[in-house]
């Protein structure tokens, strides 16, 4: 595991001890969000012939610090929806990304798109917690799990009716994925040792997944060319945070990017024919 993941996971497990004392596993049953009707994250990603966009609500990150100082999560999510995003990812990790579970909850009350809880999930408690706060899907990062833990988390997601986006960083992670249990695979283009981004590396790992898997390219994406390449290579979806968060109007940016992707795709096909 990379240093940064180790650091984050350690902090997460410390915080979890406190959170469990405040709110027990069973308490979540009475949360408003628990009753929300789920929207299929998987279908939303797979349902367009375009590369579908998962737009991320992200205030800060460990590598970039504060990305968007005037941060209004609900407004950003509404704009994403209007701009044509297929799903929304909401960072809920507080110490490293300045996220909050209450952002997820507030967004779920206003937006009709499926919502992904983006956090460092190591315990089924966090999956039930995600549901209680209005999530439709959870991110599960292979590299922060050990042995049977991955399987246990995937079962918990199923139990609570949430889709799981299973994230790999490299081939070692990929080799641990049991595709009998995984429908949506993400590969993070960012190398966590040096924070460098390589979309091609991500694509070549994604392409090893079984045919029916929904594929998501994650991180460092910002141009129509990037997305046209994903489309050409059969990748269904792109997870984009920082680029949108740095634009004045994140919704307009989604719309523009979708248009630029079409143009770039035509160019790409012309060039290769
Ligand atoms: O902001 P970017 O480079 O567009 O990346 C978004 C997303 O992929 C990134 O935030 C991310 C991918 N996997 C994660 C796991 C935890 C926290 C964050 C992430």
From TrEMBL:
<dbReference type="InterPro" id="IPR045186">
    <property type="entry name" value="Indole-3-glycerol_P_synth"/>
</dbReference>
<dbReference type="InterPro" id="IPR011060">
    <property type="entry name" value="RibuloseP-bd_barrel"/>
</dbReference>
<dbReference type="InterPro" id="IPR013798">
    <property type="entry name" value="Indole-3-glycerol_P_synth_dom"/>
</dbReference>
<keyword id="KW-0210">Decarboxylase</keyword>
<comment type="similarity">
    <text>Belongs to the TrpC family.</text>
</comment>
<dbReference type="InterPro" id="IPR013785">
    <property type="entry name" value="Aldolase_TIM"/>
</dbReference>
<dbReference type="GO" id="GO:0004425">
    <property type="term" value="F:indole-3-glycerol-phosphate synthase activity"/>
</dbReference>
<dbReference type="Pfam" id="PF00218">
    <property type="entry name" value="IGPS"/>
</dbReference>
<dbReference type="GO" id="GO:0004640">
    <property type="term" value="F:phosphoribosylanthranilate isomerase activity"/>
</dbReference>
<dbReference type="InterPro" id="IPR001468">
    <property type="entry name" value="Indole-3-GlycerolPSynthase_CS"/>
</dbReference>
<keyword id="KW-0456">Lyase</keyword>
<dbReference type="GO" id="GO:0000162">
    <property type="term" value="P:L-tryptophan biosynthetic process"/>
</dbReference>
<comment type="pathway">
    <text>Amino-acid biosynthesis; L-tryptophan biosynthesis; L-tryptophan from chorismate: step 4/5.</text>
</comment>
<keyword id="KW-0057">Aromatic amino acid biosynthesis</keyword>
<keyword id="KW-0822">Tryptophan biosynthesis</keyword>
<keyword id="KW-0028">Amino-acid biosynthesis</keyword>
<feature type="domain" description="Indole-3-glycerol phosphate synthase">
    <location>
        <begin position="5"/>
        <end position="257"/>
    </location>
</feature>
<protein>
    <recommendedName>
        <fullName>Indole-3-glycerol phosphate synthase</fullName>
        <ecNumber>4.1.1.48</ecNumber>
    </recommendedName>
</protein>
């Amino acid at each position: 595991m990379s240093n940064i993941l180790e650091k984050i996971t350690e902090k997460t497990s410390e915080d979890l001890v406190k959170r469990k004392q405040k709110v027990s596993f069973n308490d979540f049953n009475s949360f408003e969000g628990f009753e929300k009707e789920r929207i299929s994250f998987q279908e939303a990603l797979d349902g367009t012939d375009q590369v579908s966009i998962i737009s991320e609500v992200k205030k800060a990150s460990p590598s970039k610090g504060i990305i968007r100082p005037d941060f209004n999560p609900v407004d950003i999510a509404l704009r994403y929806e209007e701009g044509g995003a297929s799903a929304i990812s909401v960072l809920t990790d507080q110490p490293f990304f300045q996220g909050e579970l209450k952002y997820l909850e507030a967004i779920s009350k206003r937006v009709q798109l499926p919502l992904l809880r983006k956090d460092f999930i190591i315990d089924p408690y966090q999956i039930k917690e995600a549901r209680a706060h209005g999530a439709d899907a959870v991110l599960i990062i292979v590299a922060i799990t050990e042995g049977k833990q991955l399987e246990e988390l995937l079962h918990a997601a199923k139990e609570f009716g949430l889709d799981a986006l299973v994230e790999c960083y490299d081939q070692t992670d990929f080799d641990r994925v049991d595709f009998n249990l995984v429908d949506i695979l993400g590969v993070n283009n960012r190398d966590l040792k040096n924070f460098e981004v390589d979309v091609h590396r991500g694509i070549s790992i994604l392409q090893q997944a079984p045919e029916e898997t929904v594929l998501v390219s994650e991180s460092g994406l910002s141009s129509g060319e990037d997305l046209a390449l994903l489309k050409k290579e059969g990748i269904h979806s792109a997870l984009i945070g920082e680029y949108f968060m740095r634009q004045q109007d994140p919704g307009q940016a989604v719309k523009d990017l979708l248009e630029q992707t079409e143009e770039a795709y035509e160019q790409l096909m012309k060039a290769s024919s």
